[in-house]
User: Fold Glucokinase from Asanoa hainanensis.
Amino acid sequence: MTEVVVALDVGGTVMKCGLVSRAGELRHAERHPTNAAAGGAAVVDTILGVAAGLADTARAQGLTPVAAGLAVPGVVDEEHGVAVWAANVGFRDVPLRKLVSDRLGLPAALGHDVRAGGVAEARLGAGTGQRHVLFVAIGTGIAAAHVVDGRAFAGAHGAAGEVGHVVVRPGGPQCGCGQRGCLEAVASASALARRYTDLAGVALSAAEVAAAAAGGDPLAVRAWDEVVDALADGLTIAQTLFDPAVIVIGGGLAEAGAQLLEPLGAGLRARLTFQREPALVRAALGDAAGCLGAGLLGGDALEAA
Assistant:
């Protein structure tokens, strides 16, 4: 029988879930509301119920669930399997790994959502074949995963990869972390939309601003160029610190494709001196990356058990 991992990528609004084969193939996919408005305890109950349902689905399809993997936002203690803190889903010191393992009777792994996505892109997606990969997700916020030989580094406190909180515009816009001028505050999809509103007095989504910039709207072009310029500064810092062979750009802003990657690559190239220029590529797995990564982490836990 084919062995699969029960995999859940828990977001603030939706959980992207599935059954992932040991080779990284998504054999079954589901989406469920996270129910974050009901509080952290309700979210945990939802996770446990969905995980149990996926295990039942696997057996009904003739598959054998052998492990579970979860990817969650916020601060994650991966070593001890604890969701330390996540404001958007109400987690505070939740021992999710143990709870899921006990519910399913299977070994389990808990990882950070961006790091899980980075592992998937490194092993299965745009970083395949490269030992040193930096995955940068640019959406509502900005975060990164440094992946070496298919494994992401969490850091001493589970906070590695927070490139969105590198200050690139000192004294700039207030960031949610309390600092001013963080990369996330000036170059995320949310920041792009805010900047256009400031310039034009009209509220558009980041995707609409990108489309307007592509169409030549001068204020949209200005907002877009400012974002690309800040991202180039941020990636220069990241390249200097991590020295990856490839930087994989994911998240909502990556949907702009060449409109983003070409000027961003040129900006990065212009800033590098002694550093080696990385390949700069768009993520390949889309919004399935987190679920696939959770599945890979679950498989790793099984091998380590």
